[in-house]
Amino acid sequence: MKKIVLAYSGGLDTSIILKWLQENYKAEVIAYTADIGQKIDRNKIVRNAKKLGVKKIIIKNLKNIFVKDYLFPMIRGHAIYEGVYLLGTSIARPLIAKDQIQVAKKFKAFAVSHGATGKGNDQVRFELGYHYFGPKIRVIAPWRIWKLKSRTDLIKYALKHNISIPKDKKGAPPFSVDDNLFHTSTEGKVLENPKYSAPEFIFQRTTSPEKAPNKPQYISIGFKNSDPVSINGKKLKPEKLLEKLNQLGGKNGIGRVDLVENRFIGIKSRGVYETPGGTLLLIAHRAMESVTLDKDTMHKKDTIMPRYAELIYNGYWFSKERFKLQKIVDLKRNKVNGIIKLKLYKGNVSIQSRMTTSSAYSMKKVSFEESKTFNKSNVERFINFHKNKLK
Known about the structure:
Elements: E1 3-7, H1 12-25, E2 28-35, H2 42-51, E3 57-61, H3 63-76, H4 92-106, E4 111-113, H5 122-133, E5 138-140, H6 142-145, H7 151-160, E6 176-179, E7 184-187, E8 217-224, E9 227-231, E10 234-235, H8 238-251, E11 256-262, E12 268-274, H9 276-290, H10 295-314, H11 320-329, E13 338-345, E14 348-355, H12 363-366, H13 377-388
Parallel strand pairs: 1-2, 1-4, 2-3, 4-5
Antiparallel strand pairs: 6-7, 7-12, 8-9, 8-13, 9-10, 11-12, 13-14
Helix pairs in contact: 1-7, 3-8, 4-5, 8-9, 10-11
């Protein structure tokens, strides 16, 4: 029997897709779940898949790979899309696509399938990854070809086939939520109208700043070779380090963003994102670079960042251009070593200290006291040179 590997979450949409694939392709569907730190109920995934007649259910733990090989390189590039979005969903899709294709090859599946909607970015991100690693494997995108046109149609289909429909905290069908170890995104329903504020109950991993502790919390993040390696002096594996930062940032109301973004396919969408640990890492990493890298290197990174972030957002993680920019990002990463101390307080992050053995920052040169380490006689020539560039 021919086989299809479906990226399966165990939720409403992918359960409907699973049944629809069975009906329309007369194929064995292999349910594949990548565990990248989302709220995952393994028993529910297995139970729901078996209920729909699935014999092979694969759940892969990719959390450490996700943080080490995808998130950390992106943090080194300070990637922020449109000045706000830390790319939590965008960076996860290439990894899932890569591993899903490996599973498809292992079981000789003729096709892979995903649950990304026909108006969203994820369909592009998944399918660029599929093409890069399995160009001969067919891609089935149900949202672009089936006759189910709305959430109401999906619920009717689910009721017809006895597929359970989850409820949100208000007892209604849920918002569209994506989460992983880096972030949680929430879209749909009331959020589709940008004039309405986000209801507090949708936030899942951050305390509201108003309800955050009344006393500030101080933490130290240690960096080696431009990657975070410790919190408060304790060395942690990438996965555990991010989990700890999520807990610290979330408790203090850090990492909330409400944005209207420009999707790759040309429409605008509004979403609410929570990235507590990622926000702390980004701020700390920039602070670490400020005392360890030279001006030209830092400014070059800032110049390429918007394009680097856009490539990730658009699904080009495996492109030659992203690989090229990553080399620029990592050119002097061996110099980025030291410890950053942060103060966390009611949604705010402030830098308390920067400690490093790097010689990039010179107290003698910057001091207001006279010293022989900086030749001020050259400044006039420097200014005159730039005066001529105004003409």
